[in-house]
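Quick one: examine this chain and its backbone structure tokens and tell me how the chain folds. Here goes:
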Amino acid sequence: MATVAAAFPFIEVRIDTSALVPVAQRLPGVIAIVGKTAAGVAGGTAATNKPFVVDTLDQAADLFAKKNGVVAETDLYRSIKLAMLQDPVPSKIYGVRTDGDKYAAALAALEAVDDVTFVSLANESNVGNAAAGGNPSTGLTALKDHVENMSAQGQKRIGVSMLDPTKGKTNTYVADMSAAVATLKSDTGRMVLIAARGATGDAASAAMAAMAGYKPHISMVLKQVRGIQMPKESQYGPSEIKGLSEANIDPIIQSSLIVGDSLRFGEARIFGTDPGLLYIDIVRTLDDIDFRLKAGLIGQVGDARITKPGMTKLKVRTDEILDPLRVNSVIADYSIDIPVLNVLSVPDSTWSAADRTLVTDSRANRTVDMFVSVTYGPAVHRLKVTLAPKF
């Protein structure tokens, strides 16, 4: 006969800490700058093809330049310096020293750095070549390959590049420059192309850092880019600004409508082929929601059961993730549809053959489909004003 447990110590408490485990977070403004330095110790103490977090200019000088009383600046150091000048600043800055111009190997070093959201090549405007014959891609093509491949694997990234700033003004400037960089267009919305003719400094890295400082849903139109200069004679005229913008290239401009001599984004487009991914803030917001859903719902995998209560719990958790975005006006609205929950919410005597198959297949395969629809309310980029004077 089994012994009945004694009442003493009367109350047993088991502590479940699962509700205290924080949800994974991904800062939306983490940048990585990959670039060249001088050979040997003249280029700093950093090993090649290894990411380093850089918090101060002193760190950047130690890692990527030569300090002997004064700093002998390198391309990578100068680009990191420009990134630090932006306001607001990026959440975090990584620097990666290349071995010469072997960008593909340096970019590969970032593959496991899973918090990076933007990548640029320091002061690089060479389009480069696609991988061929066992040789890796080069120049900005290597950047495009990196951000597209990493994004396809779940680590969403945007590459920021620039037109050659040394190309002078011509009557066919827009057409010529558009043709020269056509191979950099991303079908998956992963590239941004900056135009800053005559700019002193790395316009791509400066623009990238400026983007990263803002929340994902903020449009970059007319936001300031600090640290670079563009001579008046090199700046874009109205037809060039419009032509570059319509080619999905973002010109850096100086507007007389804004007090001061600041340089600002003249557009905020993705350099791509998908009209649904036309703007930087759309891609960034979708990337942010993508990560929030994955991180917030991972706890449901292996726990939520394919029953009415289990699927209701899944829907409530999704509401908890998306509703703060609606309240903070990141998105205008959203809806959640879980087909198997719709079936489980009615008596099984009313199920059709298709309903019964859906439930059976979901339970047999342990797979649940959920459809989330998000309504996005973007910022105004163009105002059309009708002026009607009267006597």
Q: What stands out?
A: The longest strand covers residues 30-35. The two ends are 106 Å apart (CA to CA). The chain has a mean pLDDT of 96.
